[in-house]
Design brief:
By secondary structure, the protein is α+β, with helices and mostly antiparallel strands. 26% of the residues lie in helices and 34% in strands. It has 8 helices and 13 strands. The protein starts with a helix and ends with a strand. This is XRE family transcriptional regulator.
Amino acid sequence: MRYGTQHADTVPAELEAALRGGPFHVALRAAITARGLPLQRVQHHLSRYGVRVGVTSLSYWQQGARRPQRPESLRAVRALEEILQLPDESLIRLLTSTDERPDPDRPPGRSYRSLVEASGVLERLLAELESPLDGGLHTLGHHERVRIGSRRELLARESHHIVRAHKDGVDRYVAIHHGDPGCAPERIVVHAQENCRTGRVRWHHDTGLLAAELLFDTRLRTGDTFLFRYGFEDGTAGPCAEYLRGFRLAGGQYALQVSFDHEALPVRCHRFAQHSPAAPRSGRQELPLSGRHRSVHLVEPRVRSGIVGIEWDWE
């Protein structure tokens, strides 16, 4: 007898919805949670079915960091359906569902590998500008506005920064722009808009990274606050489907607003978060598009280390 049939009336609504609509990792995580089994116990039960899967692999599967693909892994998934008291083929179906496959019409996002490569390039660009990762400034507030053009491209972005110096003598800030795949960083224009002026600019074509030095007209002392505004005029890449920002350390408030051209409106928008570039996206929440201003936004009252962003779907 299948346990799923015997206890069908005890299946939580969240698990039922996940089994119906996926994705696989969400359904697996919901099933494990519903049965109250730690991963070590799940591994133990799998071994009784003659299937060997590590706790790390199980963790990756339920996080969405990896997907079971090898024959042995698929055997494990079928065994999990019994162990977790699920209907036949409920997890396997999600693995082979077309909803789980990448949308060929969706513009490519940045892969984990591309982000790692960009990280190494960024270190070299900062070294050329003689700027350490910690430039002596702590962010109190950062309001960022991104504009998407009529060709669905990342047309421009503008940042309003409020910072406090935590050492004496700080007189500059290095702003980073990471263009979409296929962009031409050598054609991106830096605009120093308020309380700063443009200094040296360095870029790397293959990764689409650009680092711009913004010079202050004063030297800050420890504890001094400073406000400045700058922007990047891009528009050199193809369709854009997301904008994200990474935070190495916890900090102040961050607000992101994405505005769309009236000739290129998305069908839906979501906010998301990631603990790291390798982690799955979580905390997804649909954002309503304002009718008059054609924009969506998110606000983080106090950022934590990791990534936050907004993604959207075109027709």
